[in-house]
């Protein structure tokens, strides 16, 4: 296998990193993935990463990244790592700016230098977010993602790097950590169904999002870097649902029916600023990539609940069998 078939995936032990790495491996790529030093979740997630060359790397270490790309010589770099919680970003604004914004600027500088030094065709994918728009754009998380997007644009237009940003709307899977509200709900539904809990505390149930499947979205990521000319695109299903809808589907999948009696409203869980609704125009991605989601909202949420039920009943938290409903 030639050096041109090497992909570097930052944040490989996260939800998107796992699905993307497995997709790339299935296509014959050599995959090198980075994880945050000291990340306690890496050991548990290793069950999903067979065949991936995993290295420890801090995004803030610019010289470390330069050395890594110089050694690996990837032709594809997918930046999926970073501070991912919008709500928690308010309490860690400086860290979020450095990890999600400044680190991307430094990565791009290293890749331009690598290309110029060796003539490599280096292509870069940046995971952007729908949170960059609307009322939620005031969050430190959104601001850092906007800074990264600007850096990608400069690298592409001023330095000719094949670099793109995907505006990723919410995408879920059983690998979503429980600190995210979607997984909090599916785990709670499973726990209540198993007699291990009797309620779930939530904030604003009327917030609306476009929720898709992580396994679908990583296929769009790969396809974006296969385009002859780099192009930023929005990746979404085009259909939005409220958090209340998600509750209904999750509790129905758990066999519990109406969730109203199980939900405790907690004002402390409300974000300082939150876009009430994020709706996407999916036509460009469908036309340019020939991509469309294969799993519906109901299938995604149902699969997450069934997986959490299996986890609680079997005691096995992580298994490759959990990755896909098919």
From TrEMBL:
Its cofactor is NADP(+). GO terms for molecular function: GDP-mannose 4,6-dehydratase activity. It is an enzyme of class 4 (lyase). Transmembrane segments: none annotated. Its EC number is 4.2.1.47. Keywords: Lyase. It comes from the Bacteria. Pfam families: GDP_Man_Dehyd. The keyword Lyase applies. One of its GO terms (biological process) is 'de novo' GDP-L-fucose biosynthetic process. Residues 8-304 form the NAD(P)-binding domain. Belongs to the NAD(P)-dependent epimerase/dehydratase family. GDP-mannose 4,6-dehydratase subfamily. This is GDP-mannose 4,6-dehydratase.
């Amino acid at each position: 296998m030639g050096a041109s078939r090497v992909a570097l995936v930052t944040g490989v032990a996260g939800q998107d990193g796992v699905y993307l790495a497995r997709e790339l491996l299935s296509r014959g790529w050599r995959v090198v993935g980075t994880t945050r030093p000291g990340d306690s979740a890496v050991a548990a997630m290793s069950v999903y990463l067979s065949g991936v060359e995993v290295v420890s790397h801090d995004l803030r270490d610019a010289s470390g990244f330069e050395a890594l790309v110089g050694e690996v010589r990837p032709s594809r770099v997918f930046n999926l790592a970073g501070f991912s919680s919008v709500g928690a970003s308010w309490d860690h604004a400086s860290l979020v700016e450095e990890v999600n914004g400044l680190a991307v600027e430094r990565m791009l500088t290293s890749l331009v230098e690598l290309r110029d030094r060796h003539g490599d065709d280096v292509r870069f994918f940046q995971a952007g977010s729908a949170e960059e728009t609307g009322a939620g754009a005031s969050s430190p998380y959104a601001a850092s993602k906007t800074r990264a997007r600007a850096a990608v644009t400069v690298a592409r237009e001023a330095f000719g790097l094949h670099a793109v940003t995907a505006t990723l709307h919410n995408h879920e899977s059983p690998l979503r950590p429980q600190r995210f509200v979607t997984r909090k709900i599916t785990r709670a539904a499973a726990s209540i169904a198993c007699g291990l809990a009797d309620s779930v505390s939530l904030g604003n149930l009327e917030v609306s999002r476009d929720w898709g499947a992580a396994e679908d979205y990583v296929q769009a990521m790969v396809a974006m870097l296969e385009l002859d000319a780099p192009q930023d695109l929005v990746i979404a299903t085009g259909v939005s649902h409220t958090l209340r809808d998600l509750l209904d589907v999750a509790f129905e999948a758990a066999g519990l029916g109406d969730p109203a009696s199980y939900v405790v409203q907690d004002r402390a869980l409300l974000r300082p600023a939150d876009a009430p609704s994020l709706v996407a125009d999916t036509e460009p991605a469908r036309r340019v990539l020939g991509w469309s989601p294969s799993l519906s909202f109901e299938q995604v949420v149902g699969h997450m609940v069934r997986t959490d039920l299996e986890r609680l009943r079997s005691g096995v938290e992580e298994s490759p069998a959990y990755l896909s409903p098919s």
